[in-house]
């Protein structure tokens, strides 16, 4: 079950962000890229968090994805590109102000 956890300094509750379509697009993207059915994909988005990137408070995001299984380098690159594009379209976060950390949950807990 992949879990994508996004933290951003963008206000998600000001009425200008369509969070429903953002969640749908992120779920679909992770499902397709990782090769897991959508009903096993979890997305968390926390907004209005105090974040600076490069010394300023312009829109930025830090994301982490944990998956129960190895995520290859091509899949990592596709996740970074696709999630970054969605965050740019929905939250106006440039790719240069977005970081995605990828974790294999089985390596963290080999009994899984």
TrEMBL record:
<dbReference type="InterPro" id="IPR001398">
    <property type="entry name" value="Macrophage_inhib_fac"/>
</dbReference>
<dbReference type="Pfam" id="PF01187">
    <property type="entry name" value="MIF"/>
</dbReference>
<protein>
    <submittedName>
        <fullName>Macrophage migration inhibitory factor</fullName>
    </submittedName>
</protein>
<dbReference type="GO" id="GO:0005615">
    <property type="term" value="C:extracellular space"/>
</dbReference>
<dbReference type="GO" id="GO:0050178">
    <property type="term" value="F:phenylpyruvate tautomerase activity"/>
</dbReference>
<dbReference type="InterPro" id="IPR014347">
    <property type="entry name" value="Tautomerase/MIF_sf"/>
</dbReference>
<comment type="similarity">
    <text>Belongs to the MIF family.</text>
</comment>
